Amino acid sequence: MSVCSHLAAITAVKTSEEYVCEECIKHGGEWVHLRTCQTCGVTLCCDDSPSTHMTKHHHATGHPVVASAEPGEQWLWCYIDNAFVEY
To answer: Considering its fold, how many domains does the chain have in total?
Structure first.
């Protein structure tokens, strides 16, 4: 199975030391699940969360790939190509 060039470029998955959405903490929000940006390493909330901070981060920066920051999950998502891969 082939993957998009953005996913193929990930050689080491960035993870977060903190299990919080940095933006929700700043603004007193709540999150459902967390994702870690594979370009800059920021961890933010997913689209099931009220503020959808990671998608907003993607639109503001163009950073294409996120990893699930959920314990036990090992997958990457590319916003640009709508592509998913487990690792």
So the answer is: 1
Q: Which domain holds residue 42?
A: 5-86
* DSSP designation for 52: -
List, for the chain, all residue ranges whose pLDDT scores fall below the cut of 50.
none
Percentage, residues of the chain above pLDDT 90: 93
CA-to-CA distance for 50 and 30, rounded, in angstroms?
A: 7
Per-residue pLDDT at 2: 75
CATH of the domain at 82: 3.30.40.10
Cα(32)–Cα(13) distance, rounded to whole angstroms? 21
Say which amino acid occupies 7.
L
- Cα separations (Å) of 77 from 1, 5, 12, 45? 15, 12, 14, 14
Which pLDDT score, from 0 to 100, does residue 18 have?
Answer: 83
Token pair listed for 54: 């990671």
